[in-house]
Specification:
This protein folds into 3 domains: about 170 residues, Glycosyltransferase; about 260 residues, Glycosyltransferase (Alpha/alpha barrel), CATH 1.50.10.20; about 150 residues, Glycosyltransferase (Alpha/alpha barrel). Helices cover about 55% and strands about 0% of the residues. It is built from 24 helices and 4 strands. It is globular, with a radius of gyration of 24 Å.
């Protein structure tokens, strides 16, 4: 049905403004790179890694004292008013990031004295939030227990945090400092890769480097008292270090991630391996990743991800001109992995989030790239072969529950490895986009996979019809979840593609979106949460898809019109460019990306404009 909106010319002008702004963000090669927020957590871990290498590498240590000093100054200038730190400058203080920043000041000689007031207030914050009193000295044991409790059975992040605190001297001296650092079975890294799911590693699939390096650091400082386990670990020490060397990217950055690379670098440097090649390459990566203001981002860039998001948003209002599309298509095809990935053993055919060597193929980026290739509107043997490989990659990733995980099929028991609705919805759209262009045998597989995916989505919606995503959250919502993002993405997928045997109640999801709309016409991550550009745009985009499917509803049309006008007003007054910290990185670390509000606004207004023209 057509959309009725007051002053429709305003929407068209806002769309033109938003499209022009987004197109202007291309780099010289014709694609998008974006800009990730500075991260207090990344800055703290990088400072600590560089400082521990400097202390232990002797004359061979690179001279990075200026980077360390600038990083400490940035942390000092960007703490929250309550004395703690959040992951970004827009994030609430949390115990993990505050503990890491506190540790960073402790590892650098003279920093505690120079920044004594900051360190004192950080300790007071940690005391309160680990269950103590601000007036009492910080109880290190209580702090360690609070950090472990925050992550439960998943050791992916709690053990690295406590390792850094131990290395920095914040948990005491000698062997006693390591009593709360849980031993990681790094000897398992010597097993063939296909064993990892079966032995149920206590870390998620992407954390193998941390398992090896931190496990070895713990063994070095506080070896196990079990003689058999101790012997096994000593026997596999050299072999697992070789595994670490083999999976380290040429630029030194594991997953292009400053925290992960820092944890590996500091752990090895602090346990007798300060001049190891892995450490040297890690230091090189960290030095190159430092920003001019003294901070480090959570990752180098999300170039592939933001490029595919942008292409797909622009396509909502018509295909890109051929001269614009051609270089993007060539660049995107070049990002597809054509060999088995040395890190995760992923088969050829997938895409990662970045064009840099630390990337790892994953479901969300592979789906996004497949949709973008289809939207770039040039189907030939090259693009069809690339799409077939990508489609097969996603098909082979599908879990037995019908859902799609991030990296590895069948791991399942820890976050970021199990199936999730947002990834499953994205895969549905990708399969649907290419289904009719591929051979019959592959079409049959796609049909069956889509049926299983729809059944998974039907089983995973919440009591009010909402879905919870994996890679996005909202710090003001209960449990940091973002049902707006999850529901909008699933609804978009189910209305954008003809999913077989679609048994999902779309009207229930629509109703959830309508009840979550704020009085100002916008949306936040959940009902009653302050409106943001990104979340409002996602809701508008999803509701526009419902109307485009001829799901006539006066309530949906009214909500869509109010949301579109909210976005139009933000474009008109310039506020639409302000990003919100809704992104979740590995281990639920918050980030914001400068291009997200631009991308999502273009997609939403483009879909709404299409309805105006009907």
């Amino acid at each position: 049905m057509p959309l009725s909106i007051p002053q429709p010319d305003r929407l068209h002008r806002a769309l033109a403004t938003a499209r022009a702004a987004l197109l202007a963000e291309r780099n010289a090669q014709g694609h998008w790179v974006g800009e990730l927020s500075a991260s207090a957590l990344s800055t703290a871990t990088a400072i600590t890694a560089l400082a521990i290498v400097a202390k232990n590498a002797g004359p061979a240590a690179p001279a990075h004292q200026p980077l360390i000093e600038r990083g400490l100054d940035w942390l000092a200038q960007n703490r929250n008013a309550d004395g703690g730190w959040g992951d970004t400058i827009k994030s609430k203080s949390n115990i993990s990031t505050t503990a890491l920043c506190w540790a960073a000041f402790g590892v650098v000689s003279g920093a505690d004295a120079k920044h004594s007031s900051i360190v004192h207030h950080a300790e007071a914050w940690l005391s309160i939030h680990s269950g103590g009193l601000s007036a009492a000295p910080l109880d290190r044991d209580q702090l360690a227990r609070a950090i472990i409790a925050r992550y439960g059975k998943d050791r992916t992040f709690s053990v690295p945090i406590l390792t850094m605190c131990a290395l920095s001297g914040r948990l005491g001296e000698g062997r006693a400092a390591w009593r709360h650092v849980i031993a990681l079975p790094y000897e398992l890294a010597a097993l063939p890769h296909w064993w990892f799911a079966a032995v149920k590693l206590p870390v998620v699939s992407y954390a193998l480097p941390a398992l090896i390096a931190i496990g070895q650091a713990r063994q070095f400082h506080k070896s196990t008292r079990n003689p058999i386990t101790g012997l096994l670990r000593e026997m596999t020490r050299a072999r697992t270090l070789r595994v670490l060397e083999n999976i380290q990217p040429p630029n030194g950055g594991f997953l292009e991630a400053t925290p992960l690379t820092s944890f590996v670098t500091m752990s090895l440097a602090g346990s007798g391996h300060a001049n190891h090649p892995v450490v040297q390459k890690g230091v090189g990566f960290l030095a190159a990743a430092a920003q001019s203001d003294g901070s480090w981002p959570i990752d180098t860039n999300l170039a592939t991800w933001v490029t595919t998001l942008t292409v797909n948003a622009l396509a909502e209002n018509g295909p890109l001109p051929a001269d614009d599309a051609s270089p993007i298509r060539d660049w995107l095809l070049a990002q597809q992995y054509r060999a088995v990935h040395p890190y995760t053993n992923a088969a050829p055919g997938g895409w990662a989030w970045t064009d840099l060597p630390g990337g790892v193929p994953d479901a969300d980026d592979t789906a996004g790239a497949l949709i973008a290739l289809r939207n770039l509107n040039a189907i030939n043997d090259v693009t069809r072969d690339a799409a077939a490989a990508g489609v097969r990659w996603l098909l082979d990733l599908q879990n037995s529950d019908g859902g799609i995980p991030t990296f590895c099929r069948g791991w399942g028991h820890l976050p970021f490895d199990r199936s999730s609705p947002d990834l499953t919805a994205h895969a549905l759209r990708a399969w649907s986009a290419w289904r009719d262009e591929l051979p019959q045998k592959l079409r049959t597989r796609i049909h069956g996979a889509m049926e299983r995916a729809v059944r998974y989505l039907d089983a995973k919606h919440g009591p009010q019809g909402e879905w919870i995503p994996l890679w996005f959250g909202n710090q003001d919502a209960p449990d940091d979840i973002n049902p707006l993002y999850g529901t909008a993405r699933v609804l978009h997928a189910l209305t954008a593609c003809d999913a077989p045997e679609n048994i999902v109640r779309l009207d229930t999801a629509e109703c959830w979106l309508l009840t979550a709309q704020n009085a100002d016409g916008g949306w936040g991550g959940a009902a009653g949460i302050v409106s943001s550009t990104e979340e409002t745009a996602l809701a508008v985009d999803a509701l526009a898809g419902c109307l485009a499917k001829s799901r006539q509803s006066d309530a949906v049309e009214t909500a869509l019109a109010r949301g579109a006008l909210w976005l139009v007003e933000r474009v008109e007054n310039g506020a639409w460019r302000e990003p919100a910290p809704i992104g979740f990185y590995f281990a639920k670390l918050w980030y914001f990306e400068r291009l997200y509000p631009l991308i999502f606004t273009v997609g939403a207004l483009g879909r709404a404009a299409n309805l105006l023209r009907r």
